[in-house]
Amino acid sequence: MNLHLTHIKLAILSISMMIFTCKTSSTNSLHPVILIPGSGGNQLEARLTAEYKSSSLLCNRWYPLKKDPDGWFRLWFDPTVLFKPFTKCFNKRMMIYYDPDVDDYHNAPGVETRVPSFGSTQGLLYLNPNLKSITSYMEPLVRSLEEVGYVSGSNLFGAPYDFRYGLAAEGHPSIVGSKFLSDLKNLIESASNSSGGRPVILLSHSLGGLFVLQLLDRNPTSWRHKYIKHFIALSAPWGGTVEEMRTFASGNAFGVPLVDPLLVREEQRSCATNLWLMPSPKVFDRTKPLVITRNGSYSSSDIAQFLQDIGFPEGVRPYKMRVLPLVQSLPSPQVPVTCVFGSGVRTPETLFYGDSGFEKRPEVVYGDGDGTVNMVSLMALESAWDGRENQSLKVIKIPGVSHTSILKDGTALGRIIGEVSGINYEISTSLLRWV
Ligand SMILES: *[C@@H]1O[C@H](CO)[C@@H](O)[C@H](O)[C@H]1NC(C)=O
Ligand SMILES: *[C@@H]1O[C@H](CO)[C@@H](O)[C@H](O)[C@H]1NC(C)=O
Ligand SMILES: *[C@@H]1O[C@H](CO)[C@@H](O)[C@H](O)[C@H]1NC(C)=O
């Protein structure tokens, strides 16, 4: 019956295939892609100065032995962190400190840090290039982009950053995080300028998405329209995670059996970005208990009290002043956004702490999500932007794919690359939609 229509469909399909194949042969016509990794998703380097005081003989300035001539060594990821005496050294060097007088964070005394290879994909392919197989991060995604014509350094770039430092609400300094946003802004402009003025596709994973949303919000609409073609956010925890409350209460060894979670807790509590990822009252129902103890319960609107009660009062002030006002809004950037994330993976939703307090691992009730981020947080833009003018939002859910396997899983990579190709060949997709 619909043969006629089918013919038209086929004809248009072949036209669009032609457009598709013509375009793939020419790299110049692709929109540049910039990758923004998640927390812990790129390498960090450190150097110890004379000011550095070691806490033990093992952690003295000689450790690690292998450093470059200027004293730089890899701080993240370094496999010695997995062995107890060195976990402590790592913590001391990795921790950051909030200074109430200047209202900002700084490194441990005597520890300088830097992010290698800004602009390049090199720093985020593997967390440690000497341990490629076990520390592969964005390598499969980069390879998949290269298969459809992207070339690292030419139209494919990476924006690694110091993921311990976050951003703060307006009026509060965040020197390290703001410097990253301005470096990223320059990278976007130079990528676009060197691609004949084509606007770029921003492709983030996890925490990277929160930085991108802030970058867009902090620049004028005219700038966004000139430089941003599309923003694709993978596994973005828009409203934080319940998992983060467990990290603050009892530490999180990320499933590495050798690591005692309480040993890494101090360092994890110190990270400004971890505070940023506490469940936000904008996204998590304020009346739903997330943590339950014999003494009472905590919802997303009780995070400050929770920090106090777990024995981390230092976190209360930066949380209330810097984080809470920042997470109160999910600004719509008026550039097209696609969220891609996994679903149907058991994700901590309620934590029960017994009589032994917050040091012991909690009983966990699981709910829907990607294993790390709760569904309500992954989906937060949909409800926040509902009915917003000039805001296109597409949501791609991939059942059974976890928070990080989204960067490796064949089906997930196929969907991500499909999305990037669709954006590059918009003519063909709009023709298909018209049919
Ligand atoms: C990109 O080009 C614009 C002019 O179109 C210029 O204002 C801007 O400074 C350039 N940015 C970079 C990072 O080269
Ligand atoms: C409950 O409150 C008591 C008394 O204030 C305190 O000692 C205990 O640590 C609390 N337990 C939990 C799990 O919060
Ligand atoms: C939507 O875009 C149009 C045209 O660019 C603009 O006039 C209008 O103010 C925008 N609406 C909002 C809510 O920003």
Task: Characterise this structure.
- The chain has 435 residues and is an alpha/beta fold.
- It has a domain at 1-6 and 31-42 and 115-234 and 404-435: Rossmann fold, CATH 3.40.50.
- It is built from 16 helices and 15 strands.
- A six-stranded parallel β-sheet has the order 7-1-8-9-12-15, with helices on both faces.
- α1 runs antiparallel to α16 (426-434), α2 runs parallel beside α9 (261-270) and α11 runs antiparallel to α12.
- The model is unreliable at 1-25 and 428-435 (pLDDT under 50).
- Residues 293-295, 309, 353, 357 line the site of one 2-acetamido-2-deoxy-beta-D-glucopyranose.
Based on the model shown, name its key terms.
435 residues; Rossmann fold; 6-stranded parallel beta sheet; 16 helices; 15 strands; globular; disordered N terminus; disordered C terminus; binds 2-acetamido-2-deoxy-beta-D-glucopyranose
| Average pLDDT rating | 90
Q: What's the total number of strands?
A: 15
* Helical content (DSSP H or I, runs of 4+): 25-40%
Chemical compounds bound to the protein = 2-acetamido-2-deoxy-beta-D-glucopyranose
Global structural class: alpha/beta
Instruction: Tell me which CATH architecture of the domain at 1-6 and 31-42 and 115-234 and 404-435 applies here.
Output: 3-Layer(aba) Sandwich
The percentage of residues in β strands lies in 15-25%
Number of helices: 16
In whole angstroms, the N-to-C terminal distance is: 16 Å
Note the overall shape: globular
CATH topology of the domain at 1-6 and 31-42 and 115-234 and 404-435: Rossmann fold
Biggest sheet features:
6 strands, parallel
**Low-confidence residue ranges:** 1-25, 428-435
Just give the CATH class of the domain at 1-6 and 31-42 and 115-234 and 404-435. Answer: Alpha Beta
Report the C-alpha radius of gyration, rounded: 23 Å
According to CATH, the homologous superfamily of the domain at 1-6 and 31-42 and 115-234 and 404-435 is: Alpha/Beta hydrolase fold, catalytic domain
